[in-house]
Amino acid sequence: MSLAWQAIAVLFDLPTYILPTPVDAAESLWTNRDELWAATLVTTGEVLAGFSIAVVISIPVAMLLVSFRWFETVVYPFIVLLQTVPKIALAPLFVVWFGFGILPKVLVTFLICFFPILLDTMTGLRSSNPDMASLVRSMGGGTWAIFRKVRLPAALPHVFAGVKVAITLAVVGAVVGEFVGATQGLGYLLLRANANLDTPLLFAAIAILTVLGLVLYYAVSLVERLVIPWHVSQRAEGTVTTGPAV
Amino acid sequence: MSMADIRDSAPVAATGTQIDVRGLEIEYETSGGPVHALGPIDLTIGAGEFVSVVGPSGCGKSTLLKAVAGLIRPSAGGVSIGGAPITKPHSDLGIVFQNPLLMDWRSVLSNVLLQAEMRSMPKQQATAKAKALLAQVGLAGFENRRPHELSGGMQQRVGICRALLHEPPLIMMDEPFGALDALTREQMCYDLQDLWLERRPTVLFITHSISEATLLSDRVIVMSKRPGQILAEYEMTRPRPRLLDDDEHPEVDRVSREIRRLLGVTDHATTKKAS
Fold this sequence. Notes:
The complex is a heterodimer of chains A (246) and B (275). Chain A is mainly α. Chain A has one domain: Orthogonal Bundle (MetI-like fold). Chain A is built from ten helices and no strands. In chain A, helix 8 (143-180) packs antiparallel against helix 10 (199-227). With 275 residues, chain B is of the alpha/beta class. Chain B has two domains: 14-93 and 172-266, P-loop containing nucleotide triphosphate hydrolases (Rossmann fold, 3-Layer(aba) Sandwich), CATH 3.40.50; 98-167, no CATH class. In chain B, the strands form two sheets. In chain B, strands 6-7-8-3-9-10 form a six-stranded mixed β-sheet, sandwiched between helices. A four-stranded antiparallel β-sheet of chain B has the order 2-1-4-5. In chain B, a hairpin with a 2-residue loop joins strand 4 and strand 5. The longest helix of chain B has 18 residues, at 182-199. Mean pLDDT of chain B is 84; it is low at 1-11.
């Protein structure tokens, strides 16, 4: 693909500020490596902070929502209302409130990640067979035992689905946060490159953001693989029953 | 895997508990108003007795089982087990549902050991017991497999081992073989007969299958369609161990015919000829 890109850029003799060749972009990546690296660290920090806070908060909130009807009745409409406000539109407000530091970016990232994890965790906690609860009750277990032995493990595949959506959105959140008002980070660098018509640098930053998203996504997938190797989504294809027929 | 050795030995003393169902009625609230699902039912199941309940789909057989197990609250009447009234889920029993209800995240052995964990049974003893039970139903060597690697029949055997691990005096089974193919069903029936003969627990067995009921039971209860009530009861007296090939046995033949008649199963060809 990058060969085709190179060919198009060269053949049509496009100016570098419209479409730089991959070689130009790679060059820019190399010459600006120190600045790009520093920006990457900043953005990664914001992504991880916002994402982690979302995981830590949304999963327990989902547990409360499915466990207590009154809590769901009272709190859930507010959560939905909050979700329908475009988080990106809140970003300028956060800058007004919290300044140009890391906090508004983390906040936008957190808000973007919160809902998918919450929703999928709730679905997961409600997905187990009700007879499974009867089974645990017949063994003398109560609500807590059912939660711990049945509902929580059964919810994990759903939780991971939400977490995987969230981690990809998290990068968007951090970059948007930086667009609105920042003095560092890849989003800030993008805007600056744009203003200077430094399109090769723009491409370099985009490439880094893409790689960052991929690395984070596969890191989450790896954790998923380790935590729920039993789930159908994690099984190797073509697993067959072997052993004596019964 | 068959346990021919027990078949020749003298009957074991019953270890089960008695169940008394008095005036039991269940009503559900639905969007279309209350639905009278079951009852009134009066039923006594003696200690160590194997009682089957047959009836049309939706007649409340499963509801009856759940009410007896204390998993749902009766609207009227009540249940007592071993003389004690049931007010909460009864735990001195083993339950097997139609769905094996195995946990994907646990190995076969660990699924059976769930019973031990919930009851804080000593781990080592429970593990040995679980392995022995699995071997008894032909699952030796499968202890560390995941449930999804097993066939439907094998999964249901795991569920049965789990229900038997703590040697309950009472076993409730809700169409346990309903989802299995015909041959597997027959084998499971024999295996269940052997397991019962070995320990003589009280069994409440819900089924659609008249042949399962007549093979396994001391008594077959026939239920009407909703609201489920008891239409008839049949004592099955032929000696055990019984065989599924005994269709010609006068008792099996008579009871099977009567149950089919009660449940409205008609043979159109013969009906036409007769009329």
